[in-house]
Amino acid sequence: MAAKSLHITKVKTFVIQGVGSGGDYHNVKGGHWLIDSPISTPMSGWEKYRTSRTSWGINVLGSFCVEIEASDGTTGFATGFGGPPACWLVKEHLDRFLIGADPRNTNSLFEQMYRASMFYGRKGLPVAVISVIDLALWDLKGKIWKEPVYRLLGGNTRDRLHFYCTGPEPLAAKQMGFIGAKVPLPYGPDEGQAGLRKNVEFLRKHRESVGPDFPLRVDCYMSLNVSYTIQIVKACEDLNIDWWEECLTPDDSDGFEQLKRAHPTVKFTTGEHEYSRYGFRKLIEGRNIDILQPDVMWVGGLTELQRISAMASAYDIPVIPHASGPYSYHFVISQPNSPFQEYLANSPDGKSVLPVFGDLFVNEPIPTKGYLDVSELDKPGFGLEVNPAARLISGDQLLRPDPQRGLEPPKEAADSGA
Q1: For this structure, is 7 an active site residue?
Q2: Which of 252, 264, 296, 298 is deepest in the core (most CB within 10 A)?
């Protein structure tokens, strides 16, 4: 029987009023550990930007949502980050590739959006916007076929998904049943040897709190350099750190070769702030990264994440996505080279489990005792129901500048009739 004809009829965008809801992890209330605790960042070289990550604008864009409607009335919905600029990009550029297209043709739609935005995109916000569109399309596809997304990706490779927890208190993560914990490194290279000593003391305290064998990981958030990383890894040799994450700026992929040369048995991970399969190609081929950590809401969506995972699997490199809630859960449960998933602690003190997307959805699945059974994902699409009380603001209500008018001819040329 021939597949029924479908096409996209509407593309809607939204931002979310207030904080604590949607796909921008860092758009949270003041005092939250994610923004207002000591965390080394690329901005730590300036003392005035060390106290809070909001001081340099980590939450400046805010959450962003897309709803795509097909000709049979079925809708797909997804969230990410991008705020008003993301809504503008969809309306002024990207929806021309969607309206009238078959929503099931995700490969073709991704390529068109990616290539059409290449002259100003390739990385960063444009690809993050495409990611959210792509996730909404996968949600729509699942609802059209009445299958959970993980089945569209090949089905489950296990019946239970295990999590490690990123947060400020590894002991709390262990007590909640997570299989490991990751902490942000507090101090950067510009804080000198005193900062280095405090980093080692900080990690030693947490190692002692969870015992010698509980997996303890360190997130460096793009804030170190090669020499400092070599030094701190050496200083922490006796602490049994499971991996060191995102030590270097994403543009210093060659630096990982030096790290591996200095510490060949230490695990280094990265990829959270890399974009598209092209960005990951060199990381994979260099074989200096032990685990890849793309964020499905930023990297290009599920369509591109599948390609990255396929490349990585040929090199036996695990893919353990960065956060992303249920969007990552459906992916990881379907992939043999994705052994477990990250849970980014969303509670202000990091000591309890709350929905990753706040109150945006009424039924977001969350890990209990450190795991999630695949049966909890058995709903069409991503299975997420938008909260009727969600503080959504239509992108159509946002200020849109008029299309730029053509330049007026120079006055002399106009006068001469040239």
Answers
A1: no
A2: 296
